Amino acid sequence: MKSVNIGICGLGTVGSGTFNVLARNAGLINARAGCDIKVTAVGARRDNANCDTSQVSVERDIFALTRRPDVDIVVELIGGTTTAKELVLQAIANGKHVVTANKALIAEYGNEIFAAAQKQGVCVAYEAGVAGGIPIIKALREGLSANKIEWLAGIINGTGNFILTEMRDKGRDFADVLVEAQVLGYAEADPAFDVEGTDAAHKLVILAAIAFGMPLRFDAVFTEGITEIQPEDVVYAEELGYRIKHLGIAKQREGGVELRVHPTLIPERRLIAQVNGVMNAVMVKGDAVGPTLYYGPGAGAEPTASAVIADIVDVARSIGSAAENCVSALGFASETIVDPGVLDINDIESAYYLRASVLDQPGVLSSVAQIMSQRGISIEAIIQKEPRAGASDVPLIMLTSATREKNLRAAVEEIEALPSANGPMVTIRLDSLDA
After folding, report:
1. Is the pTM value of this prediction over 0.85?
2. Are 187 and 270 members of one domain?
């Protein structure tokens, strides 16, 4: 049985989880890999009390792992996009294979990293970069390789999903739930990365590149967070048969690809609408297989370690094989990858949820309906609530048919300018996910 030596860079949450699972399940992992996988070195600037590193070499200079002859695979688990990028490129230059859980690194610099790896004849694997323990990369790249992927949509940030779940189940405000998420460790002290959608955008870009055979285009993804979602909108969505989820959506269109992250109303009967708390889920629609759903924990030490080690096993199996016989980084031969262009958000088509505060007087609804009609937008459902005690305005809630975003925005501007309108209109995109 051949030996494959691993060097783990970083002993934080994921690094310690990977180290410990490799030790605990060594016999099983080796039997599946068909080789003896062992950690020979760890690169960490400080020790982790949860890991027994007494039997391995510990390097305080993490770059030393990229130069060690007794390391075949460098496992990058330090995070960030500066030192991590330098580490990965140096490992590749030194002929090391790389496994990483770093979605920001892949989304922003993956094109450069994959090109360098191909030139050196080494592998870069990154299953753990998207949706934690869910094997979505492998499913897209290999399991669905017979399919033309038409679209995918995912709850790919557990923090945002936890917040929206609490808002729906308990009627709580966003700010209140965010504080609890920080206390529980689901959200960072600066939560913008999660609640503004950057984390989900990184993951969506990776999924879209694999699904559609396109370069990684983090520069082009549209991102909108959940900070403006109000409890009443969650309630009204439920009344209309929908739930609000923070989705990453990628779709193939004739004029290009849609890449967008934003709050979305989805039919409550869809399985993905039942995904609650910090869990993740990704729907993928292939032309042959139809819609499929992948569900599981999107973060955590051992769920993410599960995906990291799956990559280690895959890379270990490939060592000694010709580079051209390995699965390519994005699942497509590099010469076939083509940029189809990414559609501007104004050119996407979607249905919409709208909520306006309007004066409780005759003729208001007809004025709103006329503006919508002039823009070619059909109103599919409408709720007009009774005014609160002593209030002169009422909530007007509408669902529209699918329309181009720029038309919807123009209509919203006109409605907000009506003398009977009070304040800005709430606009949330709606997607039936082919229901």
Report:
1. yes
2. yes
Say how far apart CA 79 and CA 10 lie, in whole Å.
Answer: 9
Is residue 20 helix, strand or coil? helix
Nearest to 282 by CA among 99, 100, 133, 107: 133
Which 8-state DSSP code applies to residue 130?
S
Q: Tally Cβ neighbours within 10 Å of residue 171.
A: 11
Domain match, 276 and 377 both:
no
Q: Where are the beta strands (DSSP E) in 268-387?
A: 279-286, 290-297, 349-359, 379-384
Structural domain span for residue 26: 3-133+301-336
Taking the C-alpha atoms of residue 212 and residue 224, their distance in angstroms, rounded to an integer, is 23
Is residue 341 assigned to a domain? no
Query: What percentage of residues in the chain have a pLDDT greater than 70?
Result: 98
Q: What angle do CA 365, 370, 376 make, to 5 degrees?
A: 130
Residue 11 CA to residue 138 CA, distance in Å, equals: 25
Are residues 202 and 293 both part of a single domain? yes
4-50 per-position pLDDT tens digit: 999 999 999 999 999 999 999 999 999 999 999 999 999 998 889 88
Amino acid at position 311, single letter = D
Work out the pLDDT band at 322, boundaries 50, 70, 90: low
Last residue of one domain, picked from the residues 284, 311, 336: 336
For residue 413, how many other CB atoms are within 10 A of its CB?
11
Domain with residue 120: its CATH number is 3.40.50.720
Q: Which of 45, 139, 43 is nearest to 96 (CA)?
A: 43
> Residue 390 domain-assigned?
yes
Q: Which residues are catalytic?
A: 203
Same domain, 282 and 183: yes
How many domains, the chain? Answer: 3
Domain match, 20 and 128 both: yes
Buried b (16+ CB within 10 A) or exposed e, 59-76: beebbebbebeebbbbbb
- Between strands 57-59 and 36-43, the pairing is parallel
Distances (CA, A) of 34 to 4, 27, 328: 10, 10, 21
More confident residue, 392 or 128: 128
Same domain, 266 and 179: yes
pLDDT at 428 over 60: yes
Helix or strand holding residue 57 (H, E): strand 57-59
One domain for residues 189 and 272: yes
